[in-house]
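Rotation project, supervised by the postdoc (A.L.). Task for the rotation student: set up a whole-complex structure prediction and record inputs and outputs verbatim in this book. Inputs entered:
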Amino acid sequence: MSSARLTETSYIVLGLLEQIGPATPYDLKRMAQVSTINFWNVPHTQLYTECARLAQQDLLNEEREETGRRRRIYSLTGLGRRALEDWRSEPTEQLDEVRDVGILKLFFGGDPAKLAGAQLEAHGRQLEACEQLLEQLDANGTDVPRGWRLALEAGMGHEREFVRFWSGLSGVGFDQAAAGSA
Amino acid sequence: MSSARLTETSYIVLGLLEQIGPATPYDLKRMAQVSTINFWNVPHTQLYTECARLAQQDLLNEEREETGRRRRIYSLTGLGRRALEDWRSEPTEQLDEVRDVGILKLFFGGDPAKLAGAQLEAHGRQLEACEQLLEQLDANGTDVPRGWRLALEAGMGHEREFVRFWSGLSGVGFDQAAAGSA
DNA sequence: CCTATCATGTAATCCGTTACATGATTAT
DNA sequence: ATAATCATGTAACGGATTACATGATAGG
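Outputs recorded:
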């Protein structure tokens, strides 16, 4: 009913619910941890509030367990399903920024070599984690959605690009970094 | 005085002020448009409020024009300069996500080929804009800070990676995208 | 002189983060 | 049983986006 705008977080909730069916916010959290977490993390508290918000707009159905914990269980309504489909089927030209604190420090005069050391370390670990996740996906065979794999590969591409970029700076001192093209 | 935490936006303001000296928020906006804007945009209204906030913490000095518009002019205090230096000289292992709506749609089942079309278009334009900016930087020769160029090159690397990724999907229909490794 | 656009700012709203808190479940 | 960790949430706060609004400047 209320016409508050839908954010990316909204679509993450709608999309996850479409894939697993009725679930609690906590279920969504666990699911996100092995899927979107690599490129779009959403803290668990937001999943609770976002589910409630979407329910208010009749995009989700909300039920409560009769017994015990009385957890809230959410599922897509027809309206929610349509909102998701509309969003998904509309290609976007939106360009999102690669907001990276390491690059920001570099921009404002941080020491390239020192930054590169820390960043290479971190991105290397991240890349390994991605590779492990990829293996898991492969192990599960065909029942993992196409998009999961594609998004993971996209993320890994950027990780490799980060590694490439920082590698070029890792041996470079303060002075040499200034040198332009030969 | 008040001990509110400093955000990346704070450091952008501090950093820009270090480079141009005393300036109004509007000056900062114009400066950002030819420098950080490519990888970290900050809306102009935030520059006004952020300057005020930093002044309250004694990180910036605030003066007002005597005449006419009575614009506020900000400059770094010693405290501000030190805060910037501390932040900048501390390498970070922080990994920021590449939150991209196109990838998100892909993840949730958007059509790879359709998305690729729109995304290639947009990223292609962006890459061109980067190249033009790079030429401008080169034209200005040596008085453009080292970090500007490095950050721009980092951004361009990611743009090229986007192009590479979506290119791989542009000819792919709904069905073929499912095919794994041979 | 009138209009349009640029310049400059304020205020409200809302999302997202952080802090906190308690009920289950498992391990020892 | 008790401690520790996992599960499940609520509430406060603050930064960021959006909407609005008015004063200068330039073009016609």
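Student's summary: The beta strands of chain A are 60-64, 72-76.
Supervisor addendum: Helices of chain A lie at 8-20, 25-33, 44-56, 78-89, 101-107, 112-139, 146-170.
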